């Protein structure tokens, strides 16, 4: 999949919101495809389109998929309101400026491409011969995928997402052990961040598949949400633990998502992302976590509580050595909460010992 700009992603979100399975317009398109018919559908007000349309007849009737299907049996185009609630007219001839460049071959698709470019409207062309759906929106063009192909790609993406998720869990277990032993190196962090990068990259791809699948992607969406549960939060904690440039974790996550797969395999790219100087930094360099990851494993404490603890104790080793009495002395932390944190830390210690074995 080609890397997309932010504007292209927004355009696709808009397009899928109109033509994905489960939408009113897609129901009509599916009927047209099943009957092996072609169609040319323009979204917009006829008044605004008067310089590119001619002939046909006015309807101004309430939209229904069945009506659009019946109207597609005629040769001309169909004009719908942008909210897909009104059928303005049918059997309309599109008469765009023929000097506008298009690389489409069929008459229907050429007209659709030119109208979209000239007027900026969304135009749907259903190919009778190829049985394909092409969407034109301004200069943007997108050919919808077959549902079966999308489901296959989504299934493969889910498998890859699970693989990266499992790798991240293993990395976190390993990091916990190393943090308790005070033996974390920059290499360990780079490996963990890399897995997050691959996960987020695959996640972006899967989000697009799900958007295009619409109602057909319900099961995929459930699987996706289960895999991605708390991933942003655990990544943010990792970054806050080990970064040296004090940049917001959310911004680093955005920058990580923008890296290509090749760049994710480049250690220096990730080291730089964390704020380290790539000229003088050694991957074997030992680094000390601040404690955000450790404290994120404790329930019933707020973000503010975690900030207070990190500010007071500075690193994981100091947090681990703290007693309930030490924690209770902190402003804003009650004696009851201090006991809860202390007991939770002991449970985490025991779990880490089990994981090590």
TrEMBL record:
Key words of the record: ATP-binding, Nucleotide-binding, Nucleotidyltransferase, Transferase
Protein name as it appears in the record: DAC domain-containing protein
Molecular function GO terms recorded: adenylate cyclase activity; ATP binding; diadenylate cyclase activity
Domain of life: Bacteria
Keyword set includes Transferase: yes
NCBIfam families associated with the record: PRK13482.1
InterPro entries on file: DisA (IPR050338), DisA_sf (IPR038331), DNA_integrity_DisA_N_sf (IPR036888), DNA_integrity_scan_DisA_link (IPR018906), DNA_integrity_scan_DisA_N (IPR003390), RuvA_2-like (IPR010994)
Domain DAC stretches: 8-149
Higher taxonomy: Bacteria, Fusobacteriati, Fusobacteriota, Fusobacteriia, Fusobacteriales
Catalytic activity, reaction form: 2 ATP = 3',3'-c-di-AMP + 2 diphosphate
Pfam families, alphabetized: DAC, DisA-linker
PANTHER family linked to this entry: DIADENYLATE CYCLASE, DNA INTEGRITY SCANNING PROTEIN DISA
């Amino acid at each position: 999949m080609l890397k997309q700009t932010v504007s292209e992603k927004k355009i696709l979100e808009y397009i899928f919101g109109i033509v994905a399975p489960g939408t009113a317009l897609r129901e009509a398109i599916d009927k047209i495809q099943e009957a092996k018919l072609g169609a040319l559908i323009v979204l917009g007000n006829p008044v605004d389109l008067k310089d590119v349309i001619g002939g046909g007849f006015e309807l101004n009737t309430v939209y229904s998929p069945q009506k659009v299907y019946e109207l597609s049996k005629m040769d001309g185009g169909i004009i719908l309101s942008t909210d897909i609630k009104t059928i303005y007219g049918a059997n309309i001839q599109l008469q765009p400026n023929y000097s506008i460049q298009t690389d489409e071959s069929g008459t229907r698709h050429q007209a659709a491409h030119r109208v979209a470019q000239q007027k900026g409207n969304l135009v749907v062309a259903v190919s009778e011969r190829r049985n394909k759906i092409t969407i034109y929106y301004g200069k943007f063009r997108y050919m919808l995928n077959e549902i079966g192909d999308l489901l296959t790609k989504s299934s493969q993406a889910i498998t890859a997402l699970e693989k990266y998720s499992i790798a991240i869990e293993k990395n976190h277990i390993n990091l916990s052990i190393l943090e308790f032993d005070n033996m974390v190196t920059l290499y360990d962090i780079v490996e963990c961040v890399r897995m997050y990068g691959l996960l987020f990259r695959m996640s972006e791809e899967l989000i697009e598949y799900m958007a295009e699948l619409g109602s057909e992607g319900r099961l995929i969406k459930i699987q996706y949400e289960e895999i991605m549960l708390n991933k942003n939060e655990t990544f943010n904690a990792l970054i806050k633990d080990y970064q040296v440039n004090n940049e917001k974790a959310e911004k680093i996550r955005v920058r990580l998502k923008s890296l290509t797969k090749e760049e994710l395999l480049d250690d220096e790219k990730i080291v730089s992302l964390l704020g380290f100087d790539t000229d003088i930094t050694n991957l074997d360099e030992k680094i000390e976590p601040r404690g955000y990851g450790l404290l994120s494993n404790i329930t019933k404490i707020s973000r503010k509580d975690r900030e207070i603890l990190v500010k007071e104790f500075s690193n994981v080793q100091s947090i681990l050595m703290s007693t309930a009495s030490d924690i209770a002395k902190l402003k804003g932390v009650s004696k009851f909460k201090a006991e809860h944190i202390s007991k939770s830390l002991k449970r985490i210690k025991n779990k880490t010992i089990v994981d090590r074995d």
